[in-house]
UniProtKB/TrEMBL annotation:
InterPro entries: 2'-dNMP_N-hydrolase, Nucleoside_deoxyribTrfase. This is Nucleoside 2-deoxyribosyltransferase. It comes from Haladaptatus pallidirubidus. GO terms for biological process: deoxyribonucleoside monophosphate catabolic process. Pfam families: Nuc_deoxyrib_tr. GO terms for molecular function: 5-hydroxymethyl-dUMP N-hydrolase activity.
Amino acid sequence: MQIYFAGPLFNQAEREFNERTCSALEAEGYDVFLPQRDVGDIGELEVMDQEDVTTEDVLQEIFEIDRQGVLEADIVTATLDGRVPSEGTVIEAAIAYEHDIPVIGLKTDRRVFAIDEPYNAMVFGVLDEIVDTPAELVDAVNEYASRLVSNQK
C-alpha cells in the first residue's frame, strides 16, 4: 500500500516531524513517499543535465515528481499545521481528491481563533477525515487501507 505524505518541509522541526510520522507509517508496513526524502537533491534532478537550466525548469520537475507520487498513492496524508496549511500540501491534497484518492488531514497545531471554523472551506472539502495526532493518523491510514483492500476483493 502506497502512502503519499504531504506536509510543510521548510524548517528542521517540520522535516523531523515528517520523518518521525513517516517512520510510524512505515513501521506498519506502508511504502511512504516523503517528498523531502524521496525527490532527492536538486543536483540529482534530470533537468540538471540540461544546458541553460532555469529555476522554472527545476520547479516544474519537482512538481511533476510530487504529482506522480500523489497519483501513485493509495492514500494521501496532509499535515495542516501552521497559521495556514502549506500551499504545496493543499495542492497535493487537491490532486488526490480529483483522482478519488482518500486524503487524511493531520492537524496538531491549535493556532485558530474561530473554534467552529478551523479550516478554509476549500481545504476542508478535499479531506476525507481529520485527525489530531500522528498516532491517530496511523490508525486512520490503517482503517482506510483495510477498506481499500476489502473493496478490491
